[in-house]
């Protein structure tokens, strides 16, 4: 028997708290990196790669990891889970849609109540393809995919209690979604939006990350994927595979699995990478990321389609986003979580 006692085997509360804070910090930093990519891609585009699209994938794989931890590892009560999702997402979204509909009236990206309704019911990703689009709301497609994924993952967690059954199901669904995207784009010739805005295609990013998270929790992730540089190397490989010369379906067949691996391998990452993500600027950007993502879209449209200088528009993004975060998103979430 080992000489380690039970007391020694259990880390102190302070150690656990420090570990949790570090973990949250580098995951917030991953969010910060995600929104930074979106903002750079939209306001200061780099030739040869669409960083805006790449940033959305960074968000998706993080969501997959977090939802897997919450629903399949922690076994969070579903009623509480959906309340928390609502308090996190909906108040800020509602305020954004209403204010944008009023403020943008008469501009080239004005939209009416029908488009607003599809955004607020998380159907914009399909309505934008089949019915009507509104440039100021085009980014809402990604929120729709996430919300649909929450429902699907919650249903799976309610129906299947064994992780050994969940993992192959998630992997199978992810592979089917990836194949669906490749066939839609290559065989049927659908454009990017008609293919990759759809939940039945883009949910693959979330499901792959959720699967890898569960493999890690079960101790079934190969040792070679737990190296200290795996997260950095996988993320770098994904960036290279997202370059414009690479066919679009390859972005999602090869690059997204690398990103899903990267976000899950952060737990084993070299301190250089994890400390960078945990730094105050990155973690703070992560805290603001949802409000920044909501409010960047209309300003981006003015830059992209009207040729307005990006700097004042970016200042406007941060001004609106910080008001959203500190006056709507955070207080609404805290109040609802406390009283609902």
> Pairing-aware structural class of the strands and helices?
mainly alpha
**Biggest sheet details:** none
Shape: globular
Question: What percent of residues adopt helix (DSSP H or I)?
Answer: over 70%
* Distance from first to last alpha carbon: 50 Å
The overall pLDDT average reads: 93
Our Rg estimate from Cα atoms comes to: 20 Å
Unreliable spans are 1-23
Q: Count of DSSP E strands?
A: 0
Order of helices and strands: HHHHHHHHHHHHHHH
Query: Helix tally?
Result: 15
Strand content: under 5%
What does this structure look like?
The chain contains 15 helices and no strands. With 340 residues, the chain is mainly α. The chain has a domain of 222 residues. Helix 2 packs antiparallel against helix 3 and helix 8 runs antiparallel to helix 10. The protein starts with 5 loop residues before the first helix and ends with a helix. GO terms for molecular function: acyltransferase activity, transferring groups other than amino-acyl groups. It comes from Mesorhizobium japonicum.
Short description:
This protein has 340 residues and is mainly alpha-helical.
Features:
340 residues; mainly alpha; 15 helices; 0% strand; disordered N terminus; transmembrane
List the helices and strands and how they pair.
Layout (H helix, E strand, L loop, with lengths): L5 H4 L3 H31 L7 H23 L4 H26 L9 H8 L3 H7 L9 H20 L3 H25 L4 H5 L2 H19 L12 H12 L6 H18 L5 H8 L1 H27 L3 H30 L1
Protein name: Acyltransferase
Organism: Mesorhizobium japonicum
GO cellular component, one term: membrane
């Amino acid at each position: 028997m080992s000489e380690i006692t039970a007391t020694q085997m259990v880390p102190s509360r302070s150690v656990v708290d420090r570990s949790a804070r570090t973990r949250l910090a580098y995951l917030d930093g991953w969010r910060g990196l995600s929104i930074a990519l979106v903002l750079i891609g939209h306001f200061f585009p780099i030739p040869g790669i669409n960083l805006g699209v790449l940033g959305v994938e960074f968000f998706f794989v993080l969501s997959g990891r977090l939802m897997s931890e919450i629903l399949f590892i922690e076994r969070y009560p579903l009623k509480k889970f959906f309340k928390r999702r609502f308090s996190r997402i909906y108040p800020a979204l509602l305020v954004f849609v209403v204010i944008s509909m009023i403020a943008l009236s008469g501009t080239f990206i004005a939209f009416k109540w029908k488009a607003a309704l599809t955004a607020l019911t998380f159907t914009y990703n399909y309505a934008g393809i089949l019915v009507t689009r509104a440039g100021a709301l085009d980014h809402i497609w990604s929120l729709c995919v996430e919300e649909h994924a929450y429902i699907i993952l919650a249903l799976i967690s309610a129906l299947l209690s064994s992780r050994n059954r969940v993992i192959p199901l998630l992997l199978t669904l992810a592979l089917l979604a990836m194949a669906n995207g490749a066939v839609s784009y290559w065989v049927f010739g659908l454009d990017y939006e008609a293919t990759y805005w759809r939940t039945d295609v883009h949910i693959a990013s979330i499901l792959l990350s959720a699967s890898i998270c569960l493999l890690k929790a079960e101790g079934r992730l190969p040792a070679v994927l737990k190296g200290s540089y795996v997260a950095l190397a996988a993320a770098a490989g994904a960036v290279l595979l997202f370059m414009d010369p690479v066919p679009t379906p390859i972005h999602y067949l090869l690059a997204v699995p690398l990103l899903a691996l990267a976000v899950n391998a952060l737990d084993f990452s070299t301190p250089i990478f994890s400390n960078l993500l945990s730094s105050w600027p990155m973690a703070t950007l992560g805290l603001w990321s949802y409000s920044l993502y909501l409010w960047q879209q209309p300003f981006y449209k003015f830059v992209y389609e009207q040729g307005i200088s990006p700097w004042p528009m970016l200042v406007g993004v941060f001004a609106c986003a910080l008001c959203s975060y500190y006056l709507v998103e955070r207080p609404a979430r805290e109040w609802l979580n406390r009283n609902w």
